[in-house]
Specification:
alpha/beta, Rossmann fold, two-stranded parallel sheet, 7 helices, 24% strand, globular
């Protein structure tokens, strides 16, 4: 298939959220806690998380159509029915999601890979996303963010400090280890290469 044909397939066949308001609880059958994995990339975090928490209902959100399409295919091949993929901008998807207070934990992996000031509007982590996460998360639910860019980590800590409804898990905002035992592909590579990763953990009040 040509490159243009593949791009068409990725765009047309990557799984999307339902139109309008929709229920996170109806995406995956069962009584297990709902988890969000935002920016799962090549999907390692989804596979590792379902291995350590098979009772959870894990919803992965990825803006890149090629990655969402390919990871969804791998999940289907392994018959992992407790994971659902949604392709698109997490900010747009989650503002339509219900019900409030239904999400147990959220992971954001290495977001916002844009450096210039003119790209600030493209940043995922900001008031819009944090507002929706606060609405959707259960009290005491965990919000985990990790990045390999120090000044981005400082920005995220500052945003959480300034956002009502979230409490950082430490005085600095940082934790030493990934609390969910589910590495993203980029985290795994950074660890293997001995590169620093800044990990931030907060709870929803």
């Amino acid at each position: 298939m040509s490159d243009s044909g593949l791009r068409w397939r990725y765009r047309e066949e990557a799984p999307r959220a339902p139109e309008g308001r929709f229920s996170l609880e109806e995406l995956i059958e069962g009584p297990g806690p709902i988890e969000l994995d935002i920016g799962f990339g090549r999907g390692l975090s989804l596979f590792e998380r379902t291995a350590v928490s098979p009772g959870s209902r894990i919803i992965g959100i990825e803006v890149k159509t090629k990655l969402a399409y390919k990871v969804n295919g791998r999940l289907q091949k392994h018959d992992l029915q407790n994971v659902a993929i949604l392709c698109g901008d997490a900010r747009e998807i989650l503002k339509r999601a219900e019900p409030a207070g239904s999400v147990q934990q959220v992971a954001l992996h290495f977001p916002d890979p844009w450096w210039k000031k003119r790209h600030d509007k493209r940043r995922v982590i900001g008031e819009a996303l944090l507002t929706e996460l606060h609405r959707l998360m259960k009290p005491s639910g965990a919000l985990f963010i990790q990045t390999d860019v120090e000044h981005r980590a400082e920005q995220y800590v500052g945003q959480l400090q300034d956002t009502a409804g979230f409490t950082l898990a430490s005085d600095t905002g940082y934790v030493d280890a990934n609390p969910f035992n589910a590495r993203s592909n980029r985290e795994k590579r950074a660890i293997e290469d001995g590169l620093p990763v800044w990990r931030i953990l907060a709870t929803r009040d």
